[in-house]
Amino acid sequence: MLKDTFNRTHDYLRISLTDACNFRCLYCMPNEQMKFMPAKHLMQADEIEILAKTFVELGVKKIRLTGGEPLVRKDAKVIVARLSQFPVELTLTTNAALVDKFIDVFHQAGIKSINVSLDTLQKDKFLKLSKRDLFEKVWNNIQLLIEEGFHVKVNVVVMKGINNDEILDFIEWTKNQPVHVRFIEFMPFDKNQWNSSKVFSYQEILNLAETQFSFIKMKDGTNETAKKFKPFGHQGTFAVISTMSAPFCLNCNRIRLTADGKMKNCLFSKGEADILTALRNQEDIVRIIKTCVGQKEKALGGQFEGDFHKIDTTNINNRSMIRIGG
Ligand code: SAM
Ligand code: SF4
User: Under a CB-based contact definition with an 8 Å cutoff, are residues 262 and 271 in contact?
Assistant: First the structure.
């Protein structure tokens, strides 16, 4: 079992398959010409399989594939199929532009739940936020996932002045369809133009939701990051991931592998453990994994605490979100 010094068990691994993406979301990609990692620096399919097996032997019960966009990887189907052999809940986070090509693969791999990112219900705004004119494609693919029986969670990064005016529309969507919308507070990463005035907080989201909907708080799972709500009479739910205003580090069970095989014990950790190089050099990766978990900070990678309005982003030492794997 992977326990840290705060007695937290780590049984949820998020694997980034690539730092490449077919979208260019403002809040995720660094504000510069993005150079993607050369293929030889990425974990290869067989290396991902070996590392996943090692983590499963150490107690991992859930694996999420992410990126960049995991489905742009040419061997994404092979990787999904190989990881499906492990006794884990396998899932992924995707921008959904390519999911229609993967429905059979997902079913065969036993995937039940898929997280899709969609920050606006407006075609023009979608183009501005992602720099791709693919709103209809993404919308149709979400409909396809619902029709195919997947549990669909929709991730919405809420940014003040950009899409907070659509929160009620997103909740309205949950009325007639079984979609589970998760509003994510905007987080600071390398060169993503974050500042605290752009965060639309958990409390602001709830206050706004209450102006139009009547809802109850649902019971959260032990390691749940989202605070969930069920609007009266709706098929779906909405939730808030309040990393900035009310972090949930106390029960964190997550560890991450970047596409170039670096282990991060927290989304905000400064340090990384290079387990891909260790694997290629036939070193003892179990020892490296355990040391990395043991070094986990109490909260937010030790990079900030308290009132998010006081965060000075120049002091944050981290990769961009696209290079970490969200
Ligand atoms: N390409 C896939 C997608 O967009 O779903 C997977 C990778 S993406 C980095 C994973 C998640 O991170 C997405 O839901 C995205 O909205 C979220 N994300 C990216 N940058 C973020 C930020 N600055 N604050 C909060 N969430 C962010
Ligand atoms: Fe790509 Fe996802 Fe980042 Fe958007 S959020 S740029 S789709 S990795």
Answer: no
